[in-house]
Design a protein that fits this description.
Structural class: alpha/beta
CATH topology: Rossmann fold
Order of helices and strands: HEHEHEHEHEHEHHHE
CATH architecture: 3-Layer(aba) Sandwich
Strand order of the largest sheet: 3-2-1-4-5-6-7
Strand content: 5-15%
CATH superfamily: NAD(P)-binding Rossmann-like Domain
Bound molecules: NADPH dihydro-nicotinamide-adenine-dinucleotide phosphate
Number of domains: 1
Helix content: 40-55%
Oligomer: single chain
Distance between the termini: 39 Å
Length: about 260
């Protein structure tokens, strides 16, 4: 088994994802939307995968395309907790675009409960989306990548995989993300001859997800982040393009932490 080795190229060329096709779960909102935008700006054709009926994902895909010089971008509705459904969606994307090179398993949810009060459904719902759903997405991708002999999987994990946010109330979320980081390492080894698998672990990113947390927690968290602010989702675009491109060709099983220094003290 040998990790794929690209030709030595000019560094800006190595960072390009032009001509590649990327699928991004949770790709129409928050971090995933900016990842979709970043990959399109860097030249990739993008399939954004969403699950909600609350907005017009086709219009979002059209605006990404318009902002990125008309690069192809299309929206696909699929629930990551449906293993057959997400695998079929990835196959549909491969058929529509002709190939599939990059899959970002980014969809995720959070909820806040005292650990002693979790119902089995509340606990397993977090696991179903954040861990099982990410695995089903990666598995669907790997079946295509194995056939092609190349591919790239990026999981959105979290600093919650590494430490416990205080105040707590996120036991299930923390456990799901810690498991995801170890899953990525396992898959990176097992699938090394046909794809790379890496995690990006953001700190506090201003999205709808952060908006659901109790407001009084924000001030406490600002004081615990050396950077003293939350991050805007667009500030993550470069990291995802790096992981998706040949610029990171020797990186697999890694967990890239982007947190304004939050996990350092
Ligand atoms: P948002 O709440 O803005 O977005 C969550 C995304 O996940 C949505 O696009 C949603 O799709 C999608 N999603 C949820 N459940 C499913 C499902 N069953 N099937 C398909 N898609 C689903 O949150 P963020 O953008 O902040 O979160 C994105 C990822 O980043 C998550 O994995 C999260 O855990 C992680 N993260 C976020 C941090 C933050 O501070 N915001 C910090 C660290 C990690 P739809 O739009 O269709 O509802």
């Amino acid at each position: 088994m040998v990790l794929a080795k690209p030709e030595n190229q000019h560094v800006l060329q190595a960072f390009s994802v032009a001509g590649k096709v990327a699928a991004v779960t949770g790709g129409a909102r928050g971090i995933g939307l900016e990842v979709s935008r970043g990959l399109a700006e860097a030249g990739a054709e993008v399939a954004l995968i969403y699950s909600s009926s609350a907005y017009d994902a086709d219009a979002i895909a059209a605006s990404i395309s318009a902002d990125a010089n008309g690069v192809k971008c299309r929206a696909y509705r699929s629930d990551v907790t449906d293993a057959n459904g997400i695998a079929a969606t990835l196959q549909e994307i491969e058929r529509d675009f002709g190939h599939l090179d990059i899959v970002v398993a980014n969809a995720g949810i959070v909820s806040y409960h005292n650990a002693e009060d979790y119902t089995p459904d509340q606990f397993s719902e977090i696991m179903r989306v954040n861990l099982d759903g990410a695995f089903y997405t990666a598995q669907g991708a790997a079946r295509i990548f194995k056939k092609q002999g190349r591919g790239n999987i990026i999981f959105t994990a979290s600093v919650s995989a590494t430490l416990v946010n205080v105040p707590q109330k996120q036991a299930a979320y923390n456990a799901s993300k810690a498991a995801l980081v170890h899953l990525a390492k396992s898959l990176a080894v097992e699938w090394v001859d046909f794809c790379r698998v890496n995690c990006i672990s953001p700190g506090f990113i201003s999205t709808d997800m952060i908006a659901t947390q109790p407001a009084e927690w924000n001030q406490k968290w600002y004081s615990m982040i050396p950077g003293n602010r939350f991050c805007d989702a667009y500030e993550l675009k470069g990291a995802y393009v790096f992981c998706a491109s040949d610029a990171s060709s020797y990186m697999t099983g890694a967990n890239l932490i982007i947190d304004g220094g939050y996990t350092l003290p």
